[in-house]
Amino acid sequence: MLIIAWGTAVFSMLPQLYVWREVNFGEFRQCVTMWTEKINLVDEANQTSMTGADIQLMKLYGIQNVFITFYIPLVILVACYVLILKDIYRTLNATEPERSSALYISELSKLSTSKRWARKEKESAVSLTSRAIRGQDKLRRAKVRSLRITLLLIIVYVVTWLPNNLLSWWMVISFDTYRDYQDAMFPLAFLVVMNSVINPFIYGRWQGLKMIFTCGEVGKKPKKLCYILRC
In the record, which residues are listed under signal peptide (predicted)? Predict the structure, then answer.
């Protein structure tokens, strides 16, 4: 899986080698797209060197970019969230270990000829059952934690990436109006960087985020979904 992930990442970034380049803007140099370079090249008639083919290619690149950077990862995150949620509900509703343990104790009681031996066997069975239940409870808590982390990742990913992707669609639909407000919308690009800043806090179980997902009133037993979202 790791090799597939790295291979997909390398393949998806190949267009960037052609699109992005370092351009001299007088007193500074900056890495920009080939279309940004052409837009800033003004001829004697104050017209940019962008042709109709350049605009169409830029729009195709924008569509490809939003799918690779936003929609495909979002679908993967949501799919993982749904699978984890199903697995947790299956774990919460599982009663087979308790029933099988009860049957085991019952059979020991019937087959044992000595009361002392039966008592020892029962105590041993109860000990094994309690350890199994504790192990199952730890596994359930780990799954619940994975669910919370995945949910937070989805929320943060959408909040930080969606505005920038809406700008890309704006550029595709109406390039002329997009150019008029392009500079004013530039600060929204910083939200994309914030995604990488926030993620370590999510993985580290930042205590402040626990307040958001505390549900239910004091003294009331939380429901299953409420329990899943509790920290």
Answer: none
Other Cβ atoms less than 10 A from the Cβ of 88: the count is 19
Span 115-143, pLDDT tens digits:
555 555 555 555 555 655 566 677 777 77
DSSP state string for 102-144? HHHHHHHHHH-S-HHHHHHHHHHHHHHHHHHHHHHHHHHHHHH
Enumerate residues 6+ apart whose C-beta is below 8 A from 111: none
Are residues 170 and 220 located together in one domain of the fold? yes
DSSP-based three-state secondary structure for 206: coil
Number of domains in the chain: 2
Same domain, yes or no: 46 and 148: no
For tokens 């937070």, the residue is 152
Given a contact cutoff of 8 angstroms between Cβ atoms, the answer to whether 91 and 136 are in contact is yes
Coil vs helix vs strand at 23: strand
Domain range for 32 is 1-50
Q: What is the DSSP letter of 42?
A: B
Helix (H) or strand (E) holding 31: strand 29-33
